[in-house]
Structure formats: structure tokens, C-alpha cells
Amino acid sequence: MLLKFGSAPVVVGSSVAAAKIFLKTMDLTFASRPKTSAGKYTTYNYSDITWSPYGPYWRQARKMCLMELFSARRLESYEYIRAEEMSSLLGEIFGLSGRAFLLKDFLSTVSLNVISRMVLGRRYLDGGENAVVSPEEFKKMLDELFLLNGVLNIGDLIPYINFLDLQGYVRRMKVVSKKFDRFLEHVLDEHEARRRETAGYTSRDMVDVLLELAEDPTLEVKLERHGVKAFTQDLLAGGTESSAVTVEWAISELLKKPEIFKKATEELDRVIGKNRWVKENDIPSLPYVEAIVKETMRLHPVAPMLVPRLAREDYLNMEEIFGLSCPRKFPLLAVAEPRLPLNLYKSM
Predict the structure, then answer these.
(1) How far apart are CA 125 and CA 61, in angstroms?
(2) Residues facing residue 336 across a β-bridge
(3) Which helix or strand (DSSP H or E) is residue 13 part of?
(4) Least C-beta-crowded within 10 Å: which of 30, 209, 234, 326?
């Protein structure tokens, strides 16, 4: 579907074929990002993973994610954190048996604790006396960050009126950016002090890894302090609300389909038994539960519209690629929506 948003021609790809073209077949062609106010003001001038344009910095960031931050070895080393926080969550919920409670709050807290310990090394958001920001305030900051990175800012589409900030989004972006920067500066200062004071210090969390990489003289593009903060912000934002919302939707769907809930319980009883908790290495042996998770993500994607992609080639033949009848060739802004046909309930 071809649209025109102000001065930007936009192609929305919501079919399987279009999504495959954007995200796989021509991935490098559509790998760049447009210059938006959200990227400028909330991610240290496009210094994060999400909004950085295609180039040496983007390629380096992608390599760092695959080889360092999200390597199988590193993620496996954090399994004990996920197990401890999940056990704590189940204990709290068990203590509330017979009483009504808001599940979303518990899910948000456990995902925030998990990602905080993995990325920052400890629960920076446990509400202690020396806390820089309270858990409630941090969740509000995350909600605001997600909202402002998904809004349609008129100034991005009609650049000559951007300075007017007609919707007030830019002002809000600057406010939430200052709040995050205050928190992230505190985190980095603590990590740097610990690294200086401890002889033979070894990295314990993802911020430590990023600080190590920032000192690496072999990097093609030097990772500056603001880049470390931008990466850390991405890791915190990407691993909290997205997980909580997905689990909440999964439980909601299961409650509406008791027969599915029963089959999932039977699979757990058969494979795991009733005398131990499920572990992460049990997941491949639970195809039915895994299918429920995938179907939940299909029905309720956390980001229904992906971060917009900018075509790196100035001119593309739309009729040849997408079958759109266009009188001429032109640059385009591509937005792909990931609702692929993974309806697994049909096979259950």
C-alpha cells in the first residue's frame, strides 16, 4: 500500500510477501532508518541500535549484539537470574491465593528485575533509600519512551514546520531523555568506580561489557559514552514491557480457551511432572506450550508497526518489486507489520 505522508512517500507492507521482501530478501536495501525527532532526542542523536542509520556504526552495533551482548554463552550464564526472579514471582502470587490482584504489575516488576540484573548487575530499581528513580517512576518513563517512539510527529513529515512542535512531542522527548540520562549517568559512574577499585575486575553484566568495548582500540568506530548509554537504554526498554505484555496476553487468551489451557497443563504434567519447576532447557520438549507463545505473539504483537525503515537506494521500481502501478520511480520509506500467518491453533 503506497501512501504519502507530507513529503515522505511511504510503503506499508502488511502481507507475508511484502514482509519477506522488507525483512529478508532485500534486508540490506531497507536496513537504514529515517531521521526522526524520536531518534534524535531520545537516543542520543541516533546512537542506539534501533535508530542508527546503516553504516559502519550500525554494522558494528549489530556485531556487538550478536557476538557479545546476546551470545548463547552469555545468555546461558544469566539463567540463574531468570530462575531466581521467576521463583520470587511465583512465591508472591502464591501468597495472594484467594485474593484479586493486578497481574500486569507483577509481570512488569519481574521482567524489570530480570533485565536490570542482567544489564546493570543489580536491582537498581528496588526502591531503596539510595535509588535514583523509583520503580513506578521508571515504568512511567518507559511508557513515555515507547509512546514517543511510536507517534506520528508532523514535523518529521513536513520538516519546515518542525521547529513549531505543534503536537508538543519534541518537548516531551527532551523531558524523558533528561530523566533517563540522569539515571544512566548514575549507573555508568558506579560501574566505572567499581572497575577502578577492583584489581583484575571481570565483566559481570552487559554495562561492564559495553564499557570494555568502549575501551577497545580495535573498534572501527569508537563507542563513546553517549553510545554506551544509548545501548543500555535500548536493552532496558526492549526487555521489560515487551515481555510483560506478551505474557499478560497469553494468560488472557488461555483463560478464554479452557480447552487449550487443559492441553497445556496435560503436556506440562506429562513432560515435567508435578514435583519440579519448568527449566529453560525443558522448552524444546514442550511444543504445545511453545506453540501457544508463538500464537500469542502473532495475535498480539508488542510493536504492531515496526520501526520504519528507510530505503538505502534512492530509486526503486515499485511495479517490479511489489506489483504497484506507479507512473515513476521514487525514494520510499518502508514500514513492515509482522503479523505473519502462524496460526497454530488450527493444528492443535
Answers:
(1) 27
(2) 13
(3) strand 8-13
(4) 326
d(CA 31, CA 336): 12
CA distance 317 to 334: 14
> Which grid cell sits at 203?
565483566
Q: Are 260 and 254 in contact (CB under 8 A)?
A: yes
Q: Is 228 left (phi over 0), alpha (psi -120 to 50) or beta?
A: alpha
Q: What is the pTM of this model?
A: 0.84
| Side-by-side strand order, sheet with 333-336 | 2-5, 8-13, 333-336, 309-310
Please state, for a pLDDT cut of 70, what percent of the chain lies above it: 88
Domain range 35-241, CATH architecture: Orthogonal Bundle (1.10)
**Coil, strand or helix: which one is 21?**
helix
Nearest residue to 22 (alpha-carbon basis) of 343, 337, 340: 337
Instruction: Tell me whether strands 309-310 and 333-336 are parallel, antiparallel or unpaired.
Output: antiparallel
> pLDDT tier at 105 (50, 70, 90 boundaries)?
confident
Ranges of each domain in the chain: 35-241
